[in-house]
Design the sequence.
């Protein structure tokens, strides 16, 4: 039976098709065009979100590995825990080239409001202006800052998770590998349709009709991050976690991806390899769902189910 969109999402896609508007795409390697499309999408998504004003926000500055300053934002729930509990380092999506703490403000605030778990969103620098290792090193600076300030923030330094979606999921996966190699504990990784394999640039004809984030887009993002090393033999695992030879010693992992997402196979394979390395893994593959399905129609049943799973995991470590 051929692939089709999830029935929960069909009314949204049918309504979009009825407008007669053609989807806008960027040419391969056109970073500027892809950024314009992506930033417009993020702005539209944020405009529809509840800002969750009850969630407190504190902006901070972090010193990076190369001496630069980047921004981050600390989110705390309306009713903080009376005892030190878990917290999360959050890495926003954007295909390695798009996005910011500000564009993800509603997304992170909603997770904090629904789970009661505080989060530190990292304003990591993006490619191509800041290629690897800048994004993952910026994320590592955020993790270390959060551990160093655990006492004053009222959190448990040994219960810090890493979470990210799409490109941020890829940076999060790289961060967890980097933290392991540097002896910095991470309590859990939560990877939402993560972008983790720079070799994934050859179209699968079964997925092409459903790919909002296309194979050309994927090449653009990876080429921006890695330059001409993209797809070659020397890509480091901290840039593209699917390249890791050794997945031992990683924290319990939650991974989620749509069946119609071009990141499907790399996510499934990473989950399999994590499990084979002795890591506890929870994997969800949502039938008929494309990349970013949870932002397309946040109130439909399949999205609500995935949301409930994310909140459950956030509340359990």
Sequence:
């Amino acid at each position: 039976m051929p692939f089709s969109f999830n029935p929960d999402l069909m009314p949204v896609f049918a309504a979009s098709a009825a407008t007669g508007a053609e989807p806008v795409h960027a040419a391969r390697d056109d970073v500027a065009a892809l950024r314009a499309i992506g930033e417009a999408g993020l702005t539209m998504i944020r405009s529809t979100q509840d800002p969750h004003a009850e969630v407190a926000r504190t902006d901070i500055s972090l010193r990076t590995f190369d001496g630069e300053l980047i921004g981050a934002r600390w989110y705390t729930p309306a009713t903080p825990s009376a005892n030190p509990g878990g917290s999360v380092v959050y890495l926003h999506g954007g295909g390695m080239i798009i996005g910011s703490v500000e564009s993800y403000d509603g997304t992170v605030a909603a997770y904090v409001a629904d789970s009661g778990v505080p989060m530190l969103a990292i304003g990591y620098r993006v490619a191509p202006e800041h290629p690897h290792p800048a994004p993952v090193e910026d994320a590592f600076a955020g993790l270390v800052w959060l551990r160093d300030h655990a006492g004053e923030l009222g959190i448990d330094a040994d219960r810090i998770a890493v979470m990210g979606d799409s490109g941020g999921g890829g940076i999060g996966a790289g961060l967890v590998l980097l933290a392991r190699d540097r002896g910095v504990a991470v309590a859990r990784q939560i990877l939402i349709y993560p972008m983790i394999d720079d070799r994934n640039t050859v179209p699968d004809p079964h997925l092409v009709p459903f790919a909002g984030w296309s194979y050309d887009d994927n090449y653009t993002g990876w080429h921006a991050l890695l330059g001409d090393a993209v797809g070659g033999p020397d890509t480091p695992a901290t840039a593209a976690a699917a390249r890791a030879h050794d997945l031992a010693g990683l924290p319990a992992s939650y991974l989620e991806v749509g069946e119609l997402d071009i990141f499907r196979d790399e996510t499934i394979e990473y989950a399999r390899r994590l499990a084979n390395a002795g890591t506890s893994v929870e994997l969800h593959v949502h039938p008929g769902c494309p990349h970013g399905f949870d932002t397309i129609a946040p109130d439909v049943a399949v999205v609500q189910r995935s949301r409930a799973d994310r909140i459950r995991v956030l509340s359990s470590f």
Remarks:
- Residues 28-80+92-314 form a domain with the Rossmann fold fold (CATH 3.40.50.1820).
- The chain is about 35% helix and 20% strand.
- The first strand starts at residue 56 and ends at 63.
- The chain has one domain: 28-80+92-314.
